[in-house]
Amino acid sequence: MAACKGFQLLLGFVGSMFLIMLTFYRWDMSQEKKERIHQLQELRKQLLRETCDGDKEAFKHSLEDTSDKELENLIVDDKHGIIYCYIPKVACTNWKRVMFALNKTEPYPEPISISKDLVHMPNTFTLLNSFPRPEMKAKLKHYTKFLYVRDPLVRLISAYRDKFQRHNQYFYENFARDILRLYGNQPDPPQTVDEAFASGVHASFHNFIQYLLDPQTEEKQPFEPHWRQMHRLCHPCLIQYDFVGHQETLQEDAEQLLKILMLEGDIRFPPSYENMTSPAFVLDWFSRVPLEDRRKLYKLYEGDFRLFGYTTPAELLDG
């Protein structure tokens, strides 16, 4: 009996020691992860500073040289002192949901419960360009500013799939019909997206790239935001961002950002189900785009590659 009791005491002691060690292990791993994310943030911001300082001509550096129209992607939350620059096709629906929820009373609604159509409606958010210039400068100086970026070519693929491979009358009428006329050998394309889908007519990915590369495209108007260069939407050489998130590390970055904003216990970033893409996926999409056009496209988006630390896609550019 005594031996059995002794064994039970020993087992309890071993179990307690195991739990203590497990707790310390988890704490150590958590600290290591936190430090790794912090170092990654510092590297991302350092790269921005060095790239901006090294090229005064390619990127905007002054608010005075920037029109109000060019600041239309900056959402302001005065309640929490936050400015978020949203980039279409880079988790912007979910971050807009978060920003929308933060403007409600506590406890905040679950962001995932908020309609994606609602957060993309005009006048849903307060934008930086709605303030006088002195207020803009004060908010940019004192508020916590963040943005999320993505591999530039993967973002283009995502934009093409979303706007041209789905039934979207607005993008068909305003972009796809012209693309088909100019580059798709379709002098008289169908009038509606339904007619186009029914007849099997669609702008190819290469047609889309031809449209982007045509100098006349931007002579008419700036690129549509879904394929406009990220630095032209968020001006990272003009605005000193406190946090630079990447789509490729979306959930990890979101968790860290909410901690920085001291909101981690108040709101949850919605889980992301979008598949992360592989190099083979990108190669497959560009396999029908001529080498010369791939190289021109890289030059068109080179600023985003340089500023945000994305590797030059040698497998696409070397033939």
From TrEMBL:
Cell membrane is among the record's keywords: no
E.C. code: 2.8.2.-
Class of the enzyme per the UniProt entry, highest EC level: transferase
One Pfam family in the UniProt entry: Sulfotransfer_2
Residue stretches spanning the membrane: 6-27
UniProt membrane topology term: Single-pass type II membrane protein
GO biological process: carbohydrate biosynthetic process; proteoglycan biosynthetic process
Keywords per UniProt: Carbohydrate metabolism, Glycoprotein, Golgi apparatus, Membrane, Signal-anchor, Transferase, Transmembrane, Transmembrane helix
GO molecular function, one term: sulfotransferase activity
GO cellular component, one term: Golgi membrane
InterPro entries, sorted: Carb_sulfotrans_8-10 (IPR018011), Sulfotransferase (IPR005331)
Predominant localisation class: Golgi
Location within or outside the cell: Golgi apparatus membrane
Entry's family note: Belongs to the sulfotransferase 2 family.
Protein name: Carbohydrate sulfotransferase
Organism: Cottoperca gobio (Frogmouth)
